[in-house]
Batch of 3 targets.
Target 1
Amino acid sequence: LRPRADASGKYSAIIEASKEILKQNDRGGYTIPAKGLYPYQWNWDSALVALGWASLDETRAWEELEKLLSAQWNDGMVPHIVFHQPSPTYFPGPEIWGSVESPRGSTGITQPPVAAISVRRLFESAHDKELALKTATELFPKLLAWHRWFYKARDPEGTGLVATLHPWESGMDNSPAWDEALERVPVAKLPPYERRDLGHVNSAMRPRKEEYDRYLTLVYLFRDADYDLKKLYNLSTFRVTDLCTNSILHRANLDLQWLARQIGRDDADQEIATWIARTQVAFNSLYDPAAQIYKCRDQLTGQMIDASTSAGFLPLFARVADTAQAAALAATLERWLKKVRYGVPSCDPTDARFEPLRYWRGPVWAIVNWMITDGLRAYGYDALAETVELHTLELVEQHGIYEYFDPVTGAGAGGSYFSWTAAMCLAWIL
Ligand code: 9WN
């Protein structure tokens, strides 16, 4: 990861605004993604936000990860949302994930495991080496247990690729990649519900009702099975191999192995090495040479999913692409960038399903750009990485620190004063 010093002062306004957003969204040891819209601690948001805190306050950065991992379940899972304090502004909250009688402190599903990647980065850049060693040593067993959970709960057949059982777990909720798999989920008779997201954001920028009905159907299905890891894999009517989760998990394993060696946990080396070796090979089954991009797979039909999304570039972040695959991905990305003003759109802009303002069906997301640029640089595509980075900073500079952006007009959309967008700016610039 390449630090970019802001010697010229060009980005000082973005830096100041980003720091302010993290402070405003700080709820004491954890950061909410955005006021009103997302009032709890989200898993991969927090791990990325820690990278922003690092430039402001190292102790606070470690705290963010400690708080997230303190919500780890006994079986090793780290939940996708932690409900530290009640809030009426988000649905579905603890009363839905648990039951009205006994609300749960978290959701019962997970999100892409960014945390180990952040721990390595904080450890490497730490000024306070003693604190870094102490905290990384404490967090290591939790990270290892979480990764173990992924293989046990989500890859019981040992294929090297883990399953995602809910679109919310992918972090790319309404990606066109999930359309067909989600359509096959039979909608249960749901208790009436009111979406709170539509009170904060225009409905044209959010998932549709058909999608929400299925998101909730899956939540109730999992809740009725008491989120039992042994049951969910076979029970879920939605089961996919997500590129985002698998790329991040693989990269997180590489970073966890690096950490094991730094903190004297060589005993864990072999186990992590086995995961790495298996996944490295398995990723080839997700590469589509005709489309020159990686694709997700529907595990219930066995079919490769016919959708090219920005997650298709994340194998670069994972370092699993070979030289020829990386060249093909760079060429695909260049083609996409010719079709829009700002990259990287979350869906192929020539695809009929591309919607420039609707959430994960077109908009540009700073966190995805950050991962893609990291991957491009690792494979020597520095100029292309620079283009994507500058597009993102330009979007933020001209339109504000939004949740996501229209790749055609640049307009900011979704939530405003958004934590992970701010954090990515700090991680890039400082
Ligand atoms: C559901 C918080 C989260 C992100 C996800 C993003 C969105 C939630 C929602 O917001 O999801 O988890 O209600 O829309 O899709 O990636 O973690 O920023």
Note: The chain has one domain: 12-429.
Target 2
Amino acid sequence: MATPGKDAADSTGSATRELSQTGSFLTTAQGLRLPDTDHSLKAGERGPSLLEDFHLREKITHFDHERIPERVVHARGAAAHGVFEAYGTAESVTRAAFLRAGERTDVFVRFSTVLGSRGSADTVRDTRGFAVKFYTGEGTFDLVGNNIPVFFIQDGIKFPDIIHAGKPHPDVEIPQAQSAHDTFWDFVSLHTEATHHVMWNMSDRGIPRSYRTMEGFGVHTFRLVNADGETNLVKFHWKPVAGVHSLVWEEAQIAAGVDPDFHRRDLADGITAGVPLEFELGIQVMPDDGTETFEDIDLLDPTKLVPEELAPVQLIGKLTLDRNPVNYFAETEQVAFHTGHLVPGIEVTNDPLMQARLFSYLDTQLTRLGGPNFAQLPINAPHCPVNDMLRDGMHQQAVPTGIAPYRPNSLDDGLPEVAGAGDGGYVQTARPVSGFTVRENPVSFGDHFTQPAMFYRSLSAVEQAHIVEAFTFELGKVFEQKIKERQLTVLANVDADLCAQVAAGLGLPAPSGTPVEDVPVSAALSQVVVEPGPIAGRKIGVIADDGSDLAGIRKLRTAAEKLGAQVLVIAPHGGTLGKGRSVLPIDRSILTARSIEFDAVLVAAGTAPDTDIKTVLLLQEAYRHLKALGAWGDGGRLLQAVGVDLDGPGVLAGDVVAKAFIDDLVTALGLHRVWDRADAVMASAV
Ligand code: HDE
């Protein structure tokens, strides 16, 4: 028997009265029309407000309770709606219906940082959350992943410890959304199983360019079950169609101040501009042969990854995010993910981190969303029939019929029935469990350094240099000498060269360790691309003034928009350039423009070589951040005036905006950064 109000596959839910500013008359929550909402009821014009003013009290009381507790981790997030379309390539390993060929499933995806408060900045160095809610016909499946494939801890019981260490110091609540402080490094230097995750945090992965250019990982090993009951062990991956790209550190720092909403703005703007975010879902499939180990890698250890060279990522479907939320609070804030939201064909393993998560996600919603009925909130409501026997509780919105919410019963005709596997029931695969109760890790969890060394040695020289810089920066912010020294001993066991460079930067002696010398490398871990990728979502800034070649800018814009990229005109003033029919709107005045917004900066022909300090800063930053620069016609005069070598790497030139010039720009953007300029930047004063 269905429960009225609960079995609606209605994503907007029962609370979907049109609560917007578009209705006719303003009312109270009870529907009473109001003549005035600007003046409280007073005893005379200059008199005190009256207790009987129920509208004043309702308005203020509701306001007083507008905030709910922010998430204890991942408080800052941004989300989008979309659709997932399955290729059917996973059918041999899972019976999950939403993964059958051609199946389309509604999704809601929330991206987040981990450490910062809800109002903190997007571009801080941190792990990013990548939580996907699939509203499948068999029930909701949540894949609650991160942009880093490994985790800090092997056992969930330590989660409060790592988070207490990473959050601001409890006395002064400083620093916000940062790991560059004593308690974080105190913990991770004492707790070497965190080393692998810390290496990823200190790499470019800790500062993604955008959510669009970020990989995602399920982290844990899952057990997938096919229609014949055969099982495989699987790791989930999200591969961004736009490629994997990051910010450079100075850019991330500037953005944190200039535009703390950098990532959420990019997400929302991209979707509004009709350029959806796209990711392919992939799986690494390992045999479930009873060992839960693959090529000597313990698959239950969440600090280990499986190199893609050993188990290739097989693509099984495509996620497209193309719709922004209508209301941040109702959707992005109230969405409740849970690792225990599973569907037939997808099961968990004994990974001790995953096991603890299975408890935590349900538990946390009780405080955050105020009770056990959060699944009735529109954003959390499944898009398939719900027929539970859960009753009452805070914020109950359903009006259940029937008198026998228990089983067995005879009064409601013995309903609801239970479903076996043949009826789509979630029947867990029987797996053997034996052993003594212990508080111990398997010996195989004890190697904390081989994979961090593999990660470091798999990266390009410039990526390695960024890791050195990140460790030196973060440890440079630590006050306690003994913590810095201890972390250097950790690095000495990863890679002697890395340790020596960080030690030199800190002005400390490099300790010796016993790094594993003979580690395999995995090319898939580097994000420096050699083949240009797509440029959708990229932004090209064009510096122009009243004398510029506006036709050239228009031509450039048309070409860029065809590829999903945007051209933004930067001028000395706001308003428009040109006259009459050739008028061109200015997108940014030089006062509101900052280099971080643009992936490439060009100067239009005819633009005066005016070395205004803001223009100089913009071009110098773009140069330092290894972005493509360029000019057509005599626009190069401005680049020269700020000291850019017109023949240097990543500096584009052309007489006019012609095909060759556009092609060069597209290639440069597709390669993401001008890596060839890195050495010159280190050596130059620009
Ligand atoms: Fe989470 N985590 N987590 N986590 N996590 C939460 O759930 C927790 C872990 C992740 O956008 C909380 O609803 C424990 C790994 C994401 O709403 C909380 C442990 C991974 C999000 C929680 C972990 C994640 C969360 C906070 C160790 C990557 C944001 C509010 C056992 C695979 C979801 C909430 C969103 C959120 C607990 C470890 C990813 C408290 C106890 C590993 C993306 O329940």
Note: Residues 77-188+205-376 form a domain with the Catalase HpII,  Chain A, domain 1 fold (CATH 2.40.180.10).
Target 3
Amino acid sequence: MNSRTVADLLSQDITIPEVEIKGWVRTFRANRFIALNDGSTLQNIQCVVDFENFDEALLKKITTGAAIHVKGELVESLGKGQKVEIQVESLEILGESDPETYPIQPKKHSLEFLREQAHLRTRTNTFSAVMRLRSALSFAIHKYFNENGFYYMHTPIITGSDAEGAGEMFKVTNLDLDNVPKNDEGKTDYTKDFFGKETNLTVSGQLEAETYAMSLGKVYTFGPTFRAENSNTSRHLAEFWMIEPEVAFMDLPGNMDLAEDFMKYVLKYVLENNAEDLEFLDNRLQDEDKRKPQAERNPMTLIEKLKFVTDNNFMRVSYTEAIDILRNSKPNKKKKFQYLIEEWGTDLQSEHERFLVEKHFKCPVILFDYPANIKAFYMRLNDDGKTVRAMDILFPGIGEIVGGAQREERLEVLKQKMAAINIPEDELWWYLDLRKFGTAVHSGFGLGFERLVMFVTGMTNIRDVIPYPRTPQNAEF
Ligand code: 4AD
Ligand code: MG
């Protein structure tokens, strides 16, 4: 007897005398029709029970959420919306589910409520679709790099360096916090720590990825990264996953080409392979839109938006050009919305980014050549002495999705930049070594994985695209 998934069974055109399936009951109607889901697809398979043939006590246990094992015949279905169904011959309850206390009822729950039920929320269509897409995107990412000659590198999670130089790190220590040893200056003595120095959770694998790019040529990391920034927004997590390719002998325009090609590839992949989940999420958004005033509705459906990105070039605009556009744009007085930026050299706020992407260019935008003072120390200084070869990619509805740069490959310039922000040379001696021994132009970027999943699924809160979101107020699970 074949054990298959619901997805397999639903794709059958033929009747099969003996099949079996295990899954969780979504609904049980009229003491006769079980809608069974096993996570392999959004669809449920209908299992038809002739109640005369079954014990009443057993039927009572077929409740929403229960795990069951069904055996029977796969037959053509006369019901609407399904080609086949299972005529149940035997049924076993694997795990009961008390209908009084099971939190996931067969009705629409709010996303906020489901966030509190993170361990059960993938039993709903919305979250199972989102998480299947998350899995498919991960696969597509590895596939892209594999097909393009990149090596997958595992960068460390515990590290002594601050890759972004922004001081947003979670400390890692095994010191007894009730008895923290102090040095002569009264400061915590990390030499008494297990690692003999201050260590933290990585904010980015970039610096280590650079070392491997400078020997293996093309590498990427894809792993968890951590930021101790206290930002409670719908786009920030304390723990998020980042994809970071790094390539030797590649300059900034090459970096832009790589990022654009890569992002188009993974979007095409899910459009081709995950149509069912995408259509479901698309309909969900369109239903939501219907309840909104016209002005707030999405100009494109989810799938149209994904296709738009795969079929059109990203707009490449320098920071200086972007500032000019913002300066010359009319602030929306009615909404008291200021797009205006007074000074060259200030960082763009998310409202500026949104204006550029959603109102002005109406397509993904790659902003490059940012002022040096608002970007990280490792970025290649341009000949103007003021700007660096940085690039941020901005996406509609998301804002910044990618941050990257051509790296500073000149030893002296890098040392000066580190000194300017008090990064001791002996902390990054190995990073400086790369500039001493066979230095060369190289570049890379970091794509925030959850922001990509948000874009693909249309979910508007980052907490809804990662299984167990870590945010300043939430680490319950
Ligand atoms: O712009 P960021 O900070 O760049 C870096 O970390 C570089 N070292 C990457 C590189 O060049 N290899 O972060 C890269 C991306 C952002 O564009 C954003 O998509 C995402 O990571 N990101 C976050 N996502 C969720 N929550 C946060 N707190 C995030 N911070 C950054
Ligand atoms: Mg950034």
Note: The pocket of 4AD (ligand 1) is lined by residues 163-164, 204, 206, 227, 236-237, 240, 242, 244, 400-405, 444-446, 448, 450-451 (CB under 6 Å).
